[in-house]
Amino acid sequence: RNIKSLRHLIIPDPMILIASLRNIIRHDIELAFAKIEERDIEETQLLAKDMNELLNKGIMTECCFNALVSLRNGETQLSSKEVWDFLLQLNLATEIRDPRSLFIPCLIDSRNEDFIKAEMENFSGKNNALG
After folding, report:
1. Tell me, what DSSP letter sits at residue 111?
2. Cα separations (Å) of 1 from 65, 89, 90, 101?
3. Residue 66 and residue 58: Cα distance in Å, rounded?
């Protein structure tokens, strides 16, 4: 109701939406990438740099996104574009245009929590920092 672009959208089977989003936002992200490597999906070859960006900074490249979407086993009818758009509309992710990526903070490895908190404290004390 509060998201203007979704006000007139009817989701007849909410579990399809939930399953689609859970392919991307998951606690076992490293295990998911291991499954991708096992399946050897050529069109979604992942670079170590992409995985590091995701786990350390929460930045999911389009390549990583497509690889995770490819893991679905027919339990969803939503397209990759629809999943991408829902993540943005529900404020679960922020789009980065160049290179095309998503910033998904909840996917940052919890081992980085102390470092991130320290950096935030450092920035918050500066006059020219936003936030």
Report:
1. G
2. 27, 12, 11, 27
3. 16
Given this model, what pLDDT does residue 2 score? 65
Task: Say what the pTM is.
Answer: 0.74
pLDDT digits (tens, 9 = 90+) for 6-28: 767 777 788 888 888 888 888 88
Mean pLDDT of the chain: 78
Are 44 and 66 a contacting pair, CB within 8 Å? yes
For the record, the structure tokens of 105 come out as 């903070």
Residue tagged 């999906």 (tokens): 41
Distance of CA 94 to the CA centre of its chain: 9
Both tokens of residue 86? 């829902």
DSSP assignment letter at 116: H
Q: In this structure, what DSSP letter does residue 12 have?
A: S
Angle between helices 29-39 and 62-70 (to 10 degrees): 80
Q: Is 99 exposed, middle or buried (0-12, 13-18, 19+ CB in 10 A)?
A: exposed
For residue 44 the two structure tokens come to 């979604």
